[in-house]
Amino acid sequence: NAGVTQTPKFQVLKTGQSMTLQCAQDMNHNSMYWYRQDPGMGLRLIYYSASEGTTDKGEVPNGYNVSRLNKREFSLRLESAAPSQTSVYFCASRITGSSSYEQYFGPGTRLTVT
Amino acid sequence: QKEVEQNSGPLSVPEGAIASLNCTYSDRGSQSFFWYRQYSGKSPELIMFIYSNGDKEDGRFTAQLNKASQYVSLLIRDSQPSDSATYLCAVGGSASKIIFGSGTRLSIRP
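Predict the joint structure of the above. Result:
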């Protein structure tokens, strides 16, 4: 069981470039999430997917798009990167159906936009 | 106003004392409440969850929930240097959405 995996681990982009962050989980979880964490800050929800085929905006969705490719995979795309998107990005997954189920987090992707 | 509020700290507590961390939330429909610990450069890891009013204890950790006051807290007894970390409060509603607070930095001094 790999849990939640994220690729890449590190990435440097120039302003205006695009990229896709990949996330996959092998725990058969229904819900998946993308968060960003800026230095000294908590996690801010970008987008989430309650189940395969659905996606919803979180707190800070502007500048991002997501795709729930199947039950296992949830990708985050930056169409035109900006320095304000420099952050650590965490993907998480969770079973739905019970309010007590915790989120499991991936190791994070450190993104720098110059 | 943020949906989930925490004091950013740092909170400095002597070793062996009780550390008290607080969190307030704005959505009265919130149903689930989580405390995560995050060491620098690492992913968050779950310490406690609670979903009914009252106290829940697990070892040195106690989570307290007061839905009427929209307040959740975490007590750490017999604080150890290894407890030094950032503690994140997270709140979930009826849908799958889970929102985090900005975190409280806790420092345990020997």
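The two ends of chain B are 36 Å apart (CA to CA).
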